[in-house]
Amino acid sequence: MRPFELTAPETVDAALASPGTFLAGGTTLVDLMKLDVLTPERVLDINTLPLQGIDTTDGLRIGALERMSDVAAHPGTYPVISRALLLSASQQLRNMASIGGNLMQRTRCGYFRDVSVPCNRREPGSGCPALTGANRMHAVLGTSESCVATHASDLAVALVALDARVRLVGSDGERTVALADFYRMPADTPEVETDLRQGELISEVLVPRLDWASRSTYVKVRDRQSYEFALCSAAVALDVQDSRIVDARVAAGGVATVPWRLPSVEQALRGAPPTQETFEAAAALATEGARPLSGNGFKAPLLRRTIIRALREVTEEDRA
């Protein structure tokens, strides 16, 4: 790790006025600094800023500096969010990692994290070895000729499914952006990962009130049960009334360059009975436009099966 200056601004305004890289839980930033992937000269510890709080008065409002473990345990947290957080990391990491930091975490692509090899996301224009190299963990949706790295956050998948928004604060004031629009697919500029502007901070996450999201889950498929990133995941929430699916929210992780909302799957579910046949027909639409690589062709059928499993989980009482 290279030498750096550490400061702790006492107010949000002071933080925004100070050049440097923001540090919250540090569970991603410190790792990347140790690898020399990120080499900031100045790090701003923002943990004392007033960006905490969980409020359920109208929907769910989560301060960006709330810890993952606290949000997962809060009684007002929707099951899909709580489960995504619990499956994201070990208890120790969940006690440290912040919600805002989780949403801003960088890809776990091995090429991105290895400074001895090219990576368009780390060094624009240098190339993407994953296109022809080891790519079992990489994306099949939302890819480009510049980058095929998957997005790492489980939480972001659950929040995108629920139409969450992020409030951003910067020197020009505040703005609110849909989380689905906050993340950018790589196209020709994979180094531009989000809509966050220079000097901005995520101040809070806003999830709209969705009473029927109490019927929701997050299914994560991975190589090992403990502390591993997703090969594939699915966030699902269903509104079932009179043996019909009135509304649905479905998003996928581990298979795309951004948290991947699946509107065609949602549309296929609406108005249909919650049966295996319905789930299979809807899940078949999830892989439209998929572009498998040499080592990850299994992800397309795995995504379909993962969605079916999640749909079955949230309708178990109806089938009992």
From TrEMBL:
GO MF annotation list: FAD binding; oxidoreductase activity
Lineage: Bacteria, Bacillati, Actinomycetota, Actinomycetes, Pseudonocardiales
SUPFAM superfamilies: CO dehydrogenase flavoprotein C-terminal domain-like, FAD-binding/transporter-associated domain-like
Key word Oxidoreductase present: yes
Pfam families (alphabetical): CO_deh_flav_C (PF03450), FAD_binding_5 (PF00941)
Annotated keywords: Oxidoreductase
Protein known as: Xanthine dehydrogenase family protein subunit M
Residues covered by the FAD-binding PCMH-type domain: 1-212
